[in-house]
Amino acid sequence: MAKSSREIALEVIHRVHKTGSYANLLLPKKLQESDLDRRDKAFVTELTYGTLRACGTLDWIIKQFSKQKLGKIPGLVLDLIRMSVYQIFYMDVPDHAVINESVNIAKKHFHPGIPKFVNGMLRTISRERDSLPWPSIETDPLDYISLKYFHPLWLVKMWVEEFGLEETEALCRADNQPPQLTIRVNTLKTTPDELAASLREAGWTVEPGRYLSEALAVKGTGDLSQLPQFKEGLFYVQDQSSMMIAHVVDPHPGESILDVAAAPGGKTTHMAQLMQNKGRIVAVDLSPNRVNLLKQNINRMGVKNTLALQGDATKLKSVIKEPVDKILVDAPCSGLGVLARRPDARWTKTPEQIIELSNIQTQILSAVADHVRPGGIIVYSVCTLTKQETSLVVEHFLRTRDDFFIDDIAPYLSESIKPHVRDGMIQLMPTQGIDGLFIARLKRFE
Fold first, then answer.
1. What tens digit of pLDDT does each residue of 87-106 get?
2. What's the whole-model pTM score?
3. In degrees to the nearest 10, what's the CA dihedral of 388, 394, 399, 401?
4. Catalytic positions
């Protein structure tokens, strides 16, 4: 029997919670396998991402009414209740329809006691929803932002200390907005005008990018990766902030470049594009599976000057025999700048991970420093917002390597972005309508 829209959503939500699967990879696959129409697919998408995004707030609501501790409720049952509460509070679905559908799912999948439990819980929540003790922004601003905008309290506290209350609220609000879909035109094969025209013929809405000439903002239904223009390597799906990194590296034809933590290859292929396929890039990544993905993208985009290798960025002496002109370190990070793209990710991050990642970032920078020639450049970037992983990593590096200095990043950015440069580096924010990302350019003395 075909699964209903709510059953598909529940399956994805539970897989994400139980196994750590990526919702943005799992959900499209489940929708493709289903026979749901476009309207039902949109419903499943909103229900799945919304429930995952709001999980902390949904648990807070459930705790106000449940006599049983959440940890004692079977995982699949708890996810069914979370999904139902999300519909009651945040979707335009009548409460009685939510309750009936949820009880029917419970009857289908659980023993007789569970439907009764689900029915009682949801009817109580529906009846007493207006009595919830929501915190106010005046008396309890941290809890208010955490619950209203679906962010863990520790993260709200950290951001308020770093950015202030107003900026943190705007940041959390931005994380809940659908991110703009942008593509990078592969100028090795086509032009922005040619690609835009062909995508419009295919039914997509296309606008020029706000910050970069090779960026196009696109809207439409369907899967971009199934378009012939994608399969022919005419574009790469990439946010504009990520595209800025290759421009900060400023690669030129004939140069030698080392790209560490390179997969899946967005920045690698962009640098090859700016080099007009002339010169040499060595692209290294630790994961064999990700290196395979990197190779696929190199081939699809028609890149000819790049060697993809599996390897540890901190152990490259056997790979890099002579110092290179430039190195890109797009380091592993907490990803707190791209929470809008991973609705479940905010609940899996911890403060301890940030400390661990900052140590890894420091180790990578230190390990690659001797591989750049005197006068050469290291570009350090991470898609996150914490000082521990951004400016403090750079500060630590400069304390240990007095043969490097911060090279002002402004000349490599578009005019509209330059005012955001601080101390020669930049922290891009989701409130600017792009991914949150930090970039620093470090130059070695001659």
1. 999 999 999 999 999 999 99
2. 0.92
3. 140
4. 383
